[in-house]
Specification:
alpha/beta; FAD/NAD(P)-binding domain; 2 domains; 5-stranded parallel sheet; 16 helices; 20 strands; globular; binds 3-acetylpyridine adenine dinucleotide
């Protein structure tokens, strides 16, 4: 039985959200503790060590902006940083600002209970217990892995991996027969690298995904130096851009369906050749007009047909659903990989994985034998990590019960019946639909300002009102309903997890959201009850 530690704030998670929370709250004189289940900092980039793991936001923009010296001194080596480099960056930030001394590692939150009589949270872990006025959940949007309950999985005698829980050692697949289940962003990154090692690589695809080339390359030192010279302008421009990312292509206002063929093809070719998410901003109506969307989808299908030699494989790889209503993928030679003789694609859209056997698996009516199974089956996104903490608020109300019809937050920051709990990039905030680090900075700074304002006014509790949360959830949904996002079975909707309530979780539109948060604070935290 561990000890009970008293502090002002407990921050759960030592990824980018947790590290920045610890830094800012300590700076304001709060006694703050970090709890992290891993043995080191980095969050997403600590766990997702699968071959090929790489951020698909460009490195110069997927980084903290809060400290001018930090952003000047850190040197990125590639256009898109790989996982080892991002993890080194997180470790550097932790060392530079001496954050590790605030964090208890290998510490898993087992329960968090709110005590109304003292207005404090008791956070129980596998080690010590913590009692704090405030609880900040910086637990990440994609941190609870989804490993479906495949029949017979325990019987498999080879090695089993999940991309989101990759072992902390080098895994060498040389000479092995490897299966990959899933074709989302993680698989799209891992498959080309696994194919370099495996003797046979078989990909089991339930739904094909659209992917655009990343065109990763060593970062040009001149580009890096020029960016650093005008970093403040770049960051400021990103904050008023929905994606939080500045592309070399300015966002266009015109419609894809109205473009003439030559203009359309030239524009799409240029963006395809340049690579990156700028492709999806070629026309303003990709996300709202089905005809425009289909025209861009058809362009990508055309590219797949050109790249993939075998017509049947190309047909299977070509998605037919709305483009970009699931999270788009960026790749390095994903489609090309299927031209290798030892890489096979199996369509499991009809029957799924039927069974895992001692020596492999059964799917599409066939038996396959493997040395290793790699599950790239994604995450219980946005709510999984929060619900796993077994949080209980006022009157014994559990977060699981409060969210049985889907997550209900105000601004993705506060939850009615759960006073003094803050969710960093929680459901109902733009989070995964914008540059995550930018979204994290905005949230953590808002929380810092809130706690400072409360201290100044001698207040001890803050709780989102039910009315504010209800109208916020309606607002999030009404914006999503104006787009094509709800037309796919995406993890944005929770549709990837059997039994999860289907509701669109992130908010579309970062700049108005940040403005709204600012106004709420200026109006003395309108929509929150202060006590
Ligand atoms: O997970 P996913 P991911 N049987 O949920 C399939 C971020 N990310 O880890 O589409 C068979 O996208 C599932 O099939 P279907 C990014 O935001 C970022 O790849 O449900 N297959 C799908 O193909 C991304 O969106 C980077 O039919 C099953 C796959 O598994 C998010 O993380 C890199 C199945 C899961 O795809 C999640 O990506 C990587 C079953 N029972 C990830 N269940 C960056 O570069 C699921 N599947 C920043």
């Amino acid at each position: 039985m561990g000890s009970i530690e008293e502090c002002d704030v407990v921050v759960v998670g030592a990824g980018f959200g947790g590290l920045y929370s610890l830094y800012l709250l300590r700076q304001e004189g709060f006694d703050v503790r970090g709890l992290e289940r891993g043995t080191g900092v980095g969050g997403t980039w600590y766990w997702n060590r699968y071959p090929g793991a790489r951020c698909d936001v460009e490195s110069l923009q997927y980084s903290y902006s809060f400290d001018p010296e930090l952003q000047q001194e850190w040197e990125w080596t590639e256009r898109y940083a790989g996982q080892p480099e991002i993890l080194r960056y997180a470790e550097h930030v932790s060392d530079r600002f001496d954050l590790e001394s605030l964090i208890a590692f290998k510490t898993n939150v087992e329960a968090a209970d709110y005590d109304e009589s003292t207005s404090t949270w008791t956070v129980s872990t596998n080690r010590d217990t913590y009692r704090a006025r405030f609880l900040v959940a910086a637990t990440g949007c994609l941190s609870t892995t989804n490993l479906p309950e495949f029949e017979g999985l325990a019987n498999f005698e080879g090695d089993v991996y999940h991309t989101g829980r990759w072992p902390h050692k080098t895994v060498d697949f040389t000479g092995q027969r490897v299966a990959v289940v899933g074709t989302g962003s993680s698989a799209v990154q891992a498959i080309p690298v696994l194919a370099e090692q495996a003797s046979e690589l078989t990909v089991f695809q339930r739904t094909p995904n659209y992917s655009v080339p990343a065109r990763n390359e060593p970062l040009d030192p001149v580009v890096q130096a020029e960016t650093k010279e005008s970093y403040d302008e770049l960051r400021q421009a990103a904050r008023v851009e929905r994606s939080g990312i500045i592309s070399i292509f300015p966002p266009n206002e015109d419609s894809a369906k109205q473009a003439d063929n030559t203009e359309f093809n030239n524009r799409m070719d240029e963006r395809w050749e340049h690579g990156g998410f700028g492709f999806y901003r070629a026309y303003a109506d990709i996300g709202i007009d089905p005809t425009s969307n289909e025209r861009i989808a058809e362009y990508v299908r055309g590219q797949i047909t050109q790249v993939v030699d075998d017509p049947e494989t190309a047909r299977l790889l070509a998605p037919t659903n709305t483009i970009a209503c699931k999270r788009p993928c960026l790749d390095t030679h994903y489609y090309e990989t299927f031209n290798s003789q030892h890489v096979h694609l199996v369509d499991i859209s009809e029957g799924g994985i039927e069974e895992i056997t001692r020596t492999g698996l059964k799917a599409a009516g066939q038996d396959f034998e493997f040395d290793a199974l790699v599950f790239a089956t994604g995450f219980d996104a946005m709510t999984g990590a929060l619900l796993n903490m077994n949080i209980t608020g006022k009157d014994g109300c559990t977060l699981g019960d409060a969210w049985s019809a889907g997550p209900r937050t105000y601004l993705g920051l506060g939850v009615p019946e759960f006073p003094n709990l803050f969710t960093v990039t929680g459901p109902g905030s733009p989070s995964v639909l914008t540059n995550m680090i930018m979204a994290i900075e905005q949230h953590v700074e808002w929380i810092r300002d809130c706690l400072v304002a409360m201290r100044r006014q001698d207040l001890t509790t803050i709780e989102a009102t039910a009315t504010a949360a209800d109208s916020w959830v309606d607002h999030v949904n009404s914006i999503a309903d104006q787009t094509l996002y709800p037309t796919c079975n995406s993890w944005y909707l929770g549709a990837n997890i059997p039994g999860k309530t289907r509701v669109f979780m992130p908010l579309i539109g970062y700049p108005p959201y940040a403005e709204k948060c600012k106004q709420v604070a200026e109006n003395n935290y309108e929509g929150f009850r202060l006590g």
